[in-house]
Amino acid sequence: MSDVTTAEFNEDGKYIRKIRSFVLREGRLTKGQSQAIEAHWPAMGLNYTPQPLDLTEVFGRDADTVLEIGFGMGASLVQMASEAPEQNFIGIEVHKPGVGACLADAGEANVTNLRVYHHDAMEVLEHSIADGSLARLQLFFPDPWHKKRHHKRRIVQADFVQLVRRKLKIGGVFHMATDWENYSEHMLEVMNVAEGYKNQSTTGTVVERPDHRPLTKFEARGHRLGHGVWDIMFERIA
């Protein structure tokens, strides 16, 4: 489970905007990860700029684009891109070994529809992603900040979900997943009062894991131990 972003929120859940609001987490790269970055960054790496991406130019085609915030080591993201070649995928991760591992897997799988950022997710989302450009935004297993006094640090807050909404197309989906039931309840509380969204669950709560989200090894182990995972999907309707 990786940190989604190193951006911080104050006690009211407001994003704290600083000149440097984050530190890239270099970590210790394996030789393979380092070689993968050197080999594949020119084709798959995206360098942060404060101007919106031209997705048609980046991918060389016009297709639905899926953005994942905090992809960890990237195995699931690479699998999704491999299994949906008709879609474009962008991943954001601050942990450099994760970026290296993702690029290594993508290179091995000959994936061509994936691009990655090694940067702070909030800055990329706010400045580099054009409004109304995403078919889906994925936030899988973000830091749960499980202590009650830290709940305001959770990334799913009112301001954040409206930023996500702005980036989604009408009909685009914000897909969250967590293995902390309390966080799933928090997500639903925030989303149920968020303007411009509709829950895709027929029961008004969670959904079954959709086919497009791969079952992770961590998650499969949790299932065997009786642990739950909660998927939440809200569509932009306005």
Descriptors:
disordered N terminus, 238 residues, globular, tRNA (guanine-N(7)-)-methyltransferase, eight-stranded mixed sheet, tRNA (guanine(46)-N7)-methyltransferase activity, 18% strand, alpha/beta, single chain, 8 helices, EC 2.1.1.33
Q: Give, in spatial order, the strands making up the sheet with the most strands.
A: 1-4-3-2-5-6-8-7
In angstroms, what is the radius of gyration?
17 Å
Rough shape?
Answer: globular
Distance between the termini: 32 Å
Poorly predicted spans: 1-6, 17-22
The number of helical elements comes to: 8
Describe the structure.
The protein contains 8 helices and 8 strands; from the N terminus they run αβαβαβαβαβαβαβαβ. By secondary structure, it is of the alpha/beta class. The chain has an 8-stranded mixed β-sheet with strand order 1-4-3-2-5-6-8-7, sandwiched between helices. β2, α3 and β3 form a beta-alpha-beta unit. α1 (31-44) crosses α4 (96-108) and α3 (75-83) packs parallel to α4. It is globular and about 45 Å long. Residues 1-6 and 17-22 have low confidence and may be disordered. Pathway: tRNA modification; N(7)-methylguanine-tRNA biosynthesis. It holds the Pfam family Methyltransf_4. It catalyses: guanosine(46) in tRNA + S-adenosyl-L-methionine = N(7)-methylguanosine(46) in tRNA + S-adenosyl-L-homocysteine. Substrate binds at residues 147, 179, 216-219.
